[in-house]
Amino acid sequence: MMSMRLGKNIALISVAALVLAACSKKDAEPAPTVAEPVAPVAAESSSKPDPVVVPQLSAEELDAQKWGGSSQSGLAMYAGTDRVFFAYDSSELTDSARTKLAKQAEWLMHYSRARATVEGHCDERGTREYNLALGDRRASAVKNYLIALGVPASRLRTISYGKERPAAVNQHDQNRRGVLVIG
What we know:
Low-confidence stretches: 24-76
Mean pLDDT: 73
Distance between the termini: 58 Å
CATH superfamily: OmpA-like domain
Number of strands: 6
Number of domains: 1
Shape: extended
Strand order of the largest sheet: 3-6-4-5
Largest sheet: 4 strands, mixed
Order of helices and strands: HHEEEHEHEHE
Number of helices: 5
Protein backbone atom coordinates (compact mmCIF):
# COMPACT_ATOMS: atom_id res chain seq x y z
CA MET A 1 0.00 0.00 0.00
CA MET A 2 2.81 2.37 0.90
CA SER A 3 4.72 1.65 -2.31
CA MET A 4 1.56 2.21 -4.38
CA ARG A 5 1.01 5.59 -2.75
CA LEU A 6 4.67 6.48 -3.24
CA GLY A 7 4.40 5.49 -6.93
CA LYS A 8 1.34 7.72 -7.40
CA ASN A 9 3.10 10.64 -5.71
CA ILE A 10 6.15 10.23 -7.91
CA ALA A 11 3.92 10.07 -11.02
CA LEU A 12 2.06 13.23 -9.97
CA ILE A 13 5.29 15.11 -9.28
CA SER A 14 6.70 13.99 -12.64
CA VAL A 15 3.59 15.15 -14.50
CA ALA A 16 3.64 18.49 -12.67
CA ALA A 17 7.33 18.98 -13.55
CA LEU A 18 6.66 18.21 -17.21
CA VAL A 19 3.74 20.65 -17.32
CA LEU A 20 5.80 23.40 -15.71
CA ALA A 21 8.72 22.74 -18.06
CA ALA A 22 6.43 22.93 -21.07
CA CYS A 23 5.00 26.25 -19.87
CA SER A 24 8.34 27.90 -19.17
CA LYS A 25 9.42 30.71 -21.46
CA LYS A 26 12.48 30.27 -23.62
CA ASP A 27 14.73 33.10 -24.72
CA ALA A 28 13.89 32.68 -28.39
CA GLU A 29 14.16 35.22 -31.18
CA PRO A 30 10.97 37.17 -31.66
CA ALA A 31 9.03 36.00 -34.69
CA PRO A 32 9.01 38.44 -37.59
CA THR A 33 5.82 40.42 -37.60
CA VAL A 34 3.51 40.37 -40.56
CA ALA A 35 1.54 43.51 -41.24
CA GLU A 36 -2.24 43.33 -41.16
CA PRO A 37 -4.14 44.08 -44.38
CA VAL A 38 -4.68 47.79 -44.87
CA ALA A 39 -8.33 48.81 -44.52
CA PRO A 40 -9.50 51.63 -46.76
CA VAL A 41 -10.18 54.95 -45.07
CA ALA A 42 -12.58 56.32 -47.65
CA ALA A 43 -15.11 54.51 -49.80
CA GLU A 44 -13.53 55.56 -53.09
CA SER A 45 -9.84 56.10 -52.35
CA SER A 46 -8.06 56.89 -55.60
CA SER A 47 -4.50 56.61 -54.32
CA LYS A 48 -2.96 53.20 -53.77
CA PRO A 49 -1.21 52.89 -50.38
CA ASP A 50 2.47 51.98 -50.35
CA PRO A 51 3.17 48.30 -49.75
CA VAL A 52 4.19 47.34 -46.23
CA VAL A 53 7.83 46.20 -45.99
CA VAL A 54 8.42 43.20 -43.75
CA PRO A 55 11.98 42.32 -42.66
CA GLN A 56 13.44 38.93 -43.66
CA LEU A 57 10.99 38.27 -46.47
CA SER A 58 10.52 34.82 -47.98
CA ALA A 59 10.42 34.35 -51.75
CA GLU A 60 6.61 34.35 -51.64
CA GLU A 61 6.57 37.55 -49.62
CA LEU A 62 9.00 39.20 -52.04
CA ASP A 63 6.63 38.23 -54.84
CA ALA A 64 3.78 39.64 -52.77
CA GLN A 65 5.54 43.01 -52.66
CA LYS A 66 5.52 43.03 -56.45
CA TRP A 67 1.74 42.77 -56.26
CA GLY A 68 1.54 45.72 -53.88
CA GLY A 69 -0.07 44.21 -50.81
CA SER A 70 0.58 42.92 -47.35
CA SER A 71 0.66 39.23 -46.55
CA GLN A 72 -2.73 37.62 -45.90
CA SER A 73 -2.89 33.86 -45.23
CA GLY A 74 0.44 33.48 -47.02
CA LEU A 75 -0.89 35.34 -50.03
CA ALA A 76 -0.91 39.00 -50.96
CA MET A 77 -3.80 41.13 -52.14
CA TYR A 78 -3.67 44.65 -53.50
CA ALA A 79 -3.82 46.83 -50.42
CA GLY A 80 -7.20 48.53 -50.05
CA THR A 81 -8.81 46.75 -52.99
CA ASP A 82 -10.43 43.79 -51.29
CA ARG A 83 -13.83 45.54 -51.41
CA VAL A 84 -16.02 47.36 -53.87
CA PHE A 85 -18.93 49.64 -53.04
CA PHE A 86 -22.45 49.87 -54.41
CA ALA A 87 -25.05 52.60 -54.75
CA TYR A 88 -28.19 52.53 -52.62
CA ASP A 89 -30.51 49.63 -53.50
CA SER A 90 -28.25 48.54 -56.37
CA SER A 91 -26.12 45.59 -57.38
CA GLU A 92 -24.67 47.34 -60.44
CA LEU A 93 -20.89 47.67 -60.55
CA THR A 94 -19.48 51.19 -60.77
CA ASP A 95 -16.48 52.11 -62.93
CA SER A 96 -14.37 52.30 -59.78
CA ALA A 97 -15.54 48.82 -58.75
CA ARG A 98 -14.66 47.43 -62.19
CA THR A 99 -11.15 48.89 -61.90
CA LYS A 100 -10.62 47.28 -58.50
CA LEU A 101 -12.07 43.97 -59.70
CA ALA A 102 -9.68 43.98 -62.67
CA LYS A 103 -6.78 44.17 -60.18
CA GLN A 104 -8.35 41.40 -58.10
CA ALA A 105 -8.76 39.23 -61.21
CA GLU A 106 -5.12 39.84 -62.18
CA TRP A 107 -4.05 38.85 -58.68
CA LEU A 108 -6.23 35.72 -58.70
CA MET A 109 -4.86 34.72 -62.11
CA HIS A 110 -1.29 35.13 -60.80
CA TYR A 111 -2.04 33.02 -57.72
CA SER A 112 -3.82 30.24 -59.57
CA ARG A 113 -4.30 28.03 -56.49
CA ALA A 114 -6.01 30.71 -54.41
CA ARG A 115 -9.73 30.37 -53.77
CA ALA A 116 -11.95 33.26 -52.79
CA THR A 117 -15.31 33.95 -51.22
CA VAL A 118 -17.21 37.01 -52.35
CA GLU A 119 -19.26 38.46 -49.51
CA GLY A 120 -22.31 40.61 -50.24
CA HIS A 121 -23.21 43.26 -47.65
CA CYS A 122 -25.93 45.92 -47.28
CA ASP A 123 -26.65 48.89 -45.07
CA GLU A 124 -29.13 48.54 -42.22
CA ARG A 125 -32.12 49.95 -44.07
CA GLY A 126 -34.72 47.45 -45.29
CA THR A 127 -35.85 44.07 -44.01
CA ARG A 128 -33.52 41.22 -43.23
CA GLU A 129 -34.88 39.13 -46.10
CA TYR A 130 -34.61 41.95 -48.63
CA ASN A 131 -31.03 42.72 -47.62
CA LEU A 132 -30.00 39.06 -47.79
CA ALA A 133 -31.33 38.93 -51.37
CA LEU A 134 -29.64 42.24 -52.28
CA GLY A 135 -26.36 41.07 -50.71
CA ASP A 136 -26.60 37.89 -52.79
CA ARG A 137 -27.10 39.93 -55.98
CA ARG A 138 -24.09 42.10 -55.08
CA ALA A 139 -21.86 39.08 -54.39
CA SER A 140 -23.02 37.45 -57.63
CA ALA A 141 -22.31 40.64 -59.61
CA VAL A 142 -18.73 40.66 -58.29
CA LYS A 143 -18.28 36.93 -58.93
CA ASN A 144 -19.70 37.14 -62.47
CA TYR A 145 -17.43 40.06 -63.34
CA LEU A 146 -14.36 38.18 -62.06
CA ILE A 147 -15.42 35.15 -64.14
CA ALA A 148 -15.81 37.40 -67.19
CA LEU A 149 -12.22 38.57 -66.61
CA GLY A 150 -10.97 34.96 -66.71
CA VAL A 151 -11.06 33.74 -63.11
CA PRO A 152 -12.41 30.15 -63.06
CA ALA A 153 -15.85 29.90 -61.43
CA SER A 154 -14.68 26.83 -59.48
CA ARG A 155 -12.37 29.07 -57.44
CA LEU A 156 -15.09 31.51 -56.39
CA ARG A 157 -18.05 31.18 -54.07
CA THR A 158 -20.54 33.73 -52.78
CA ILE A 159 -22.25 34.39 -49.49
CA SER A 160 -24.67 37.13 -48.47
CA TYR A 161 -24.58 38.67 -45.02
CA GLY A 162 -27.23 41.26 -45.79
CA LYS A 163 -27.20 43.88 -43.04
CA GLU A 164 -25.83 41.51 -40.38
CA ARG A 165 -22.15 42.56 -40.56
CA PRO A 166 -21.88 46.33 -40.94
CA ALA A 167 -18.40 47.75 -41.54
CA ALA A 168 -19.31 51.00 -39.78
CA VAL A 169 -22.32 52.15 -37.79
CA ASN A 170 -24.49 54.72 -39.61
CA GLN A 171 -22.08 54.78 -42.56
CA HIS A 172 -24.42 53.55 -45.28
CA ASP A 173 -21.92 53.98 -48.12
CA GLN A 174 -19.31 51.86 -46.25
CA ASN A 175 -21.80 49.05 -45.59
CA ARG A 176 -23.05 48.64 -49.17
CA ARG A 177 -20.16 46.52 -50.36
CA GLY A 178 -18.82 43.36 -51.90
CA VAL A 179 -15.74 41.92 -50.20
CA LEU A 180 -13.29 39.40 -51.64
CA VAL A 181 -11.92 37.09 -48.94
CA ILE A 182 -8.99 34.85 -49.89
CA GLY A 183 -8.85 31.40 -48.40
